[in-house]
Amino acid sequence: MRAKLSTGIPGLDNLLGGGILEGHVVAVIGLYETGKTTLGLHFVYEGLKNGESCIIISFNEDEESIVENSKAIGMDLEQFKDKIQIVRLEAVEVKRNIEKIESELPEIINASNAKRMLIDTVSVLETIFEDAERYKVLAMLRRMLKSARITAIITSEADKYNPNSSKYGLLEYICDGLISLKVIRKSELDEPILGIEVVKMRRTKHSRKPKPYAITENGIVVFEEAEIF
Ligand SMILES: Nc1ncnc2c1ncn2[C@@H]1O[C@H](COP(=O)(O)OP(=O)(O)OP(=O)(O)O)[C@@H](O)[C@H]1O
Ligand SMILES: [Mg+2]
Questions:
Q1: pLDDT per residue over 165-185, tens digit each?
Q2: pTM
Q3: I need a labelling partner for 213 at 20 to 30 A (CA). Which of 129, 130, 174, 199 fits?
């Protein structure tokens, strides 16, 4: 039996039946500002607290801004600077030289013996590739993560009309699991409610019920006892 890794969010671990299976690649999708990066940071921070080496691949933010944002939710990444590597990638560069990424990323993972990885976000990458190429690049990412035996979270934008599907409908097929962060409105006039749902998780008995959550000064809190309506 493979071990389950805590996400660092107790309510989410319970929805997942304990956590994310070691070696799984899990997509976290949602519209803007739904807490995708925050969820990923919880996952990495939990690993760091356990003494695991972790890697953050960031397409959006530089290291300084990731460290700052983590501080705002009570995570001090600097104390783990020996265990964490933050790699900034430009989507355009990746497109120009995909072979370089394919050969260099596994080296980075092996050299640090990292156990967890956050890739935040592949949205721009997905956008700049044409249909056929998009699948190829996501499949390459999966192959690379699987052969490195790392447990990973990949964040991406959700489809505007179907929050349980990624924008291009591909990421969920290359990932072992899909967690959706959604904005739920009872009516146009009501304040929106944030809901988290484990849409898919291979080899796991998980809850399928969306639960309300909030983003606080301590990061994401899932209200397990509450119902959305
Ligand atoms: N300390 C905090 N207290 C309360 N809310 C916070 C705090 N820090 C961040 N937030 C809220 O978290 C949300 C952003 O979270 P996050 O950056 O993880 O989302 P995201 O889905 O990654 O967004 P994007 O699509 O822009 O990348 C914002 O709505 C912000 O107001
Ligand atoms: Mg983000």
A1: 999 999 999 999 999 999 999
A2: 0.97
A3: 174
